[in-house]
Amino acid sequence: MTTFWMLAGMAVLTFLIRASFLVFGRGLRFPAWLHEALHYVPPAVLSALVVPMALAPRGTLDIGWDNAYLAGTLAAGLVALRSRHTLLAIVAGFVVYVLWRLVLAG
Amino acid sequence: MSSLFNTRDCLAGARDTLPMLVGAAPFGVIFGTLAVGAGLPPWAAQAMSLLVYAGSSQFVAVSLVSAGTVLPVIWLTTFIINLRHALYSATLLPTARTWPLRWRAALAFWLTDETFAVVEHRFRTRGEAGAAAYQLGSSLAMYLNWQFFTLVGIVLGKAVPGLADWGLDFAMVATFTAIVAPQLRQRPALAAAATAGVLALLCRGWPYKLDLIVAVTGGMSAAMAVRYASRRSRT
Fold first, then answer.
1. What was the pLDDT predicted at B164?
2. Using a CB-CB distance cutoff of 8 angstroms, which residues of chain A are in contact with residue B88?
3. Does pLDDT of B232 surpass 90?
4. Does residue A96 belong to the interface with chain B, where contact is any CB pair within 8 Å?
5. Interface of A with B in 75-94 (CB under 8 A)
């Protein structure tokens, strides 16, 4: 039931946003500050999700060399910055993460 | 179908979207796999792609579900992440103004980053002739592609049940990192990411996942502050 309401709410909200101007919006106007602020939603949201998972994967701060999440995240970030190739960066991050865990376990 | 439809422009829209289809495919697979790995029933994972149809908010919702987040926060986060689509909606309105309501409503439902990029380029360079059919072609291609690769991911996630314990939570971290890192060359975006990251770390574990809302609001404020500061120093 919760899953149903989650989907229903997400679907309705997303449609209303997309329909805002195209369907309802002949009189709507977009404030300039909001226009600018929206550019920074993706970096803010994604970083807010990534940083705690990379630096505190088990809930407490862990910035030691044995943190495989941190190693993999740094690898993915560096490859993405250098190559601008999203998929390559994901694969590189994942490979470093898996190798890190294998080496630590072995 | 009204006279807005014609096969040639519709096919052209689908054809010009082809590179976007290739780019979205692996994310569809990753989404499907992660969604069932996070404990979402397969029908719900597919329904999210069918009804919400907004990749980044689908990913974030899955990570919020696995963190046991309450509904209002999932909705609020969806709203914030997808608000950029209002910008696309506003940009396309001048071209779409004369289209019948059902066309505007359907094309609004299918409005994604990818279709917007393709369609806006065409409207700007080639004008408005055949615009509705062109956007329909792009929309349908993206939609069917996303559904198919979501399904592939769901099947994969079900076939290999251990996949989730096997580091899929890291696949999410790697995906988000790879998307965000190239944007950090710009100073306001860097300020947004740094502030949001630090706040999320400091506030982690707050009830109702309020840490996420605080971090995102703080990050966006930091980016705006940097923009205004650099604008003032230039004048």
1. 60
2. 18
3. no
4. no
5. 76-81, 84, 86-87, 89-90, 93-94
Question: Which residues are within 8 A (CB) of B46 and not within 5 positions of it... i.e. 6 or more apart?
Answer: B32, B147, B150, B151, B154
Chain A residue whose CA is closest to B93: A22
Same domain, A81 and A55: yes
Residues B137 and B191 grouped into a single domain: no
Tell me whether residues A73 and B90 touch, CB distance under 8 A: no
Predicted pLDDT at B165 = 65
Q: pLDDT tens digits for B147-170?
A: 999 999 999 999 887 766 667 678
Please tell me if residue A44 touches chain B, with a CB cutoff of 8 Å: yes
Least Cα distance to B96 among B134, B125, B51, B144 occurs for B134
B141 class by beta-carbon count within 10 Å (0-12 exposed, 13-18 middle, 19+ buried):
buried
Tell me the residue type at B95: T
Containing structural domain, residue A17: 1-30
Q: Is B139 exposed, middle or buried (0-12, 13-18, 19+ CB in 10 A)?
A: buried
How many domains are contained in chain B?
A: 2
User: Could you give the number of structural domains in chain A?
Assistant: 2
B28 assigned to some structural domain: yes
Rg for chain A, CA atoms, rounded: 20
A16 touches chain B (CB under 8 A): no
Question: B180 and B200 in contact (C-beta within 8 Å)?
Answer: no
B161: buried, middle or exposed (CB in 10 Å: 19+, 13-18, 0-12)?
exposed
pLDDT in tens, B98-109: 899 999 999 999
Q: How many other CB atoms are found less than 10 A from the CB of residue B205?
A: 9
Contact assignment for B193 to A46 by CB distance below 8 Å: yes
